[in-house]
Amino acid sequence: MTHHAADPVRLIALRDTPLSLDEVHAAVGDTSAGGTVVFVGTVRDHDGGRGVTALEYSAHPSAEEELRRVAEKVVADFPVAALAAVHRVGPLAVTDAAVIVAVSCAHRAEAFDACRRLIDDIKHTVPIWKHQRFADGSEEWVSAC
Length: 145
Description:
alpha+beta
């Protein structure tokens, strides 16, 4: 565990390499935290009743800046000790981690609430798109938000 840093936003990144649960969890370690919540979004093998065979994420050039803005808003709205968020871009396989977010707070209820807000706001506002290929040969681009 690390001591509370001046900036609770400890890790914000878009990566084209596999995400590390250990790295994200370690980033939010804080001596003032009594609760840490981690959410991992993974690529599933279906969407809308169709089998997914391949998936690729693309991000707008402003996506990492927007990811930071979302994180800073969560820090402003909740008593966050530390926060981290990383999102994959590029091709992913079924079961790969697409996004990992973590929040630590003094109390568990605050950590759950802040982590839910973080992932929901990322999904709704950060400009990242998902290109899915389906088992039936069809494909589609959808907002990952």
